[in-house]
Amino acid sequence: MNTISRDVVVIGAGASGLTVAHELTKAGRSVAVLEARDRVGGRLWTRDVDGASLELGGQWVSPDQDALLGTLAELGLETYSRYRDGADIFVGRDGTRTEFTGADLPLPQTTLTEIESLTAAMDRLAADVGAEEPWANPRAAEYDSVSFAGWLETQTDDADARDVIAMFIGAAMLTKPPHTFSLLQAVMMAASAGGFSNLVDADFILDKRVKGGLQQVPLRLADKLGDDVFLNSPALDVRTDDSRVTVSAGNVEVRAGHVVLAVPPNLIQRITFSPPLPRRQMQLHQHISLGLVIKVHAVYDTPFWRDAGLSGTAFDPHGLVHESYDNTNFGDTRGTLVGFISDERADGVLKLSPPERRERILDALARVYGDAARRPAVYYESDWAAEEWTRGAYAASFDLGGLARFGADMRAPAGRVYFSCSDIAGRGFQHVDGAIRMGRATAAALLN
């Protein structure tokens, strides 16, 4: 086994871990980054599939994501706008497909009024609770004791309004059914994006993409670190004493002053700690889990929906694919659609054989875009729950009562052990922006 010494050892070569390492090396500290996979990037992965370049994980950049935008500028990466010209599509509870323009969904005015009221209520709660320390709000325990679905039922009798609002938080973001997470978790999710109004605005939250793919952020950060990044090196155990920490990872052992766990919270339990992590940390990790989503990529010879005057943006809250977008790469003459299947609906189709699942999903896209959607030249499903070193997407969230009870402990160092990932971010929660913010904050804490 190769034994090396560094000031800090980082476990996880995703955007957060590599940001920690980058900031520390800029300050003159020595680092080693241990990555279990054979690549860097974590939940960012741009891969060639049958001749098509697909972003299998995170990909979008919002205008409020200052940390990510600053990193893109520092690394010399360029962005381009998501295609959004033309009409959007909405499919109602009865399967009626409507093309529309403007911000309002094609629903009865009474339902739109309820949606506006719920949106305003969520914006008020997000402003009051905030993203950084929602557990500190005087009503945190109260908000954390009721499910988001339960709260919506107390606000309106309009089922369509409830379903639309629940889709944006549950299926689209936390990727869990709305009866499984609390109002406090939903409000924190909204606050992390600057408010619920931002979260439901596709032109805001899904504004731009990076030319060549968002994985270039960790790839370029790793390039700066060179041989200090160790791939195929899953951390097996972490041993600490009064003077140092020792991390064993297959063929390499790192002795350092501190260790940073830059992995999703659900993976921390796979590491053996000696002495064990504090009781609060061990309890916390039993009350937080990742959601489930399938990201579907369908590449066509041409973006046929554009010829029909469509933007590619579609919402089908009662269908299998709850939302989908034009995801055509910069400069590509082909057209790409990306769609999402979350929580219990994903459970259902994952029980099918791959051919049956493909047929069901393409039928769902055809319900929105027409028969041409059934004939992609390239088809691929990103299932992060099947990834050994992720096991879900997009981020970890608490069960009922967990955020108020354990939230204050999420980011607290445990002696020489520090934590850094998008799952425990406030602003930018579950986005690369949050991963970078946490990386910078963790590096600053270590330097101080």
Automatic annotation (TrEMBL):
InterPro entries referenced in this protein's UniProt entry, alphabetically: Amino_oxidase (IPR002937), FAD/NAD-bd_sf (IPR036188), Flavin_amine_oxidase (IPR001613), Flavin_MAO (IPR050703)
Binding site for substrate: 340
UniProt domain Amine oxidase: residue ranges: 16-447
Cofactor or coenzyme needed: FAD
EC number from the UniProt entry: 1.4.3.10
Keywords assigned: Oxidoreductase
Binding site for FAD: 16, 35-36
SUPFAM superfamilies: FAD-linked reductases, C-terminal domain, FAD/NAD(P)-binding domain
Enzyme class: oxidoreductase
Record GO terms (molecular function): putrescine oxidase activity
PANTHER family associated with the record: AMINE OXIDASE, AMINE OXIDASE [FLAVIN-CONTAINING] B
Family designation: Belongs to the flavin monoamine oxidase family.
Name this protein carries in UniProt: Putrescine oxidase
Organism for this UniProt entry: Spelaeicoccus albus
